[in-house]
Amino acid sequence: MLIITCPNCGPRPVEEFRFGGEIPQPPDSITDPFERDLDQVWMFTNVAGVQTERWFHDAGCHRWLTAARDTSIDRFVD
Amino acid sequence: MHAPERLDGLRVVATPDALDHAWFEGDVIVFRIAHDEVIAFGAVVAEVPDEHAIVERETAFVGWGLSYAEFDELIARHVEWPLPVERPALAQGLAAGLPVKLWFDHDGVLLVVSSGFAHEVVDRFRLPAFAETVTKQVTRQVRA
Questions:
Q1: Which of B37, B80, B93 lies closest to A9 in CB terms?
Q2: Which residue of B has its CA nearest to A5?
Q3: How far does B34 lie from chain A, in Å, by closest CA?
Q4: Helices (H), strands (E): how many in chain A?
Q5: How many domains does chain A have?
Q6: Mean pLDDT taken over chain B
Q7: Buried-most residue among A57, B32, B33, B131 (CB within 10 A)?
Q8: Closest-CA residue to B98 (of B70, B73, B75, B65)
Q9: Is A13–B34 a contact, with Cβ atoms under 8 angstroms apart?
């Protein structure tokens, strides 16, 4: 079972959460602020490894949290 | 075990420090559902030391009072996450696929759900349904 640790509620099964997408980091080569915003919203890296994601605790505290997940093994990491 | 009660109170959103020092009039049970939000069941007046605090009446929940024996028999096996050991304590999450809030007191457990899930709770946990008189009162109010 995939477990997410909610800062308010503690460890909970992933079924209690709604996926909010990854938080991509625009590459340094993009310097224009508008282009960086555009890249962050629309361009996803979808890495095979650790990526930072947003999750919403739908069945609990109704708060967003940020978590790091290793997509290659589908496990959350500290 | 009793039929569910409608739980009225206040929902307050404020800074965490203000909620730590908030005062609620009456015999209340305060659910700290997040660092910046509480639901105070039974409260009608709240004093919150935060000028930007949001205080709204909350009428969307129903609750069942259970003994620990009843909780162990009917509810605990549906909970797939660790339950708190300290008392009193609030726990919230899925139980039998329903979003529930559990208030663990020294005397027993209060199972709280959004009223829209009340009938699902009755079906899935085999808990008592609303008393017929209450149902009729609500029906009468809706028709009026």
A1: B93
A2: B81
A3: 6
A4: 1, 6
A5: 1
A6: 90
A7: A57
A8: B75
A9: no
Closest residue in chain B to residue A15, using alpha carbons only:
B94
Distance from the Cα of A4 to chain B's closest Cα (Å) equals: 11
Listed in sequence order, the DSSP H helices in A2-68 are 33-42
Domain enclosing residue A64, as ranges: 3-77
Q: With H, G, I as helix, E, B as strand and everything else as coil, classify residue A3.
A: strand
pLDDT of chain A along its 78 residues, tens only?
Answer: 899 999 999 999 999 999 999 998 899 999 999 999 999 889 988 899 999 999 999 999 999 999 999 999 999 997
Beta strand A75-77 pairing with B98-104: unpaired
pLDDT in the model for residue B133: 47
How much is the CA Rg of chain B, to the nearest whole Å?
Answer: 16
Residue A9 sits at the chain B interface (C-beta within 8 Å): yes
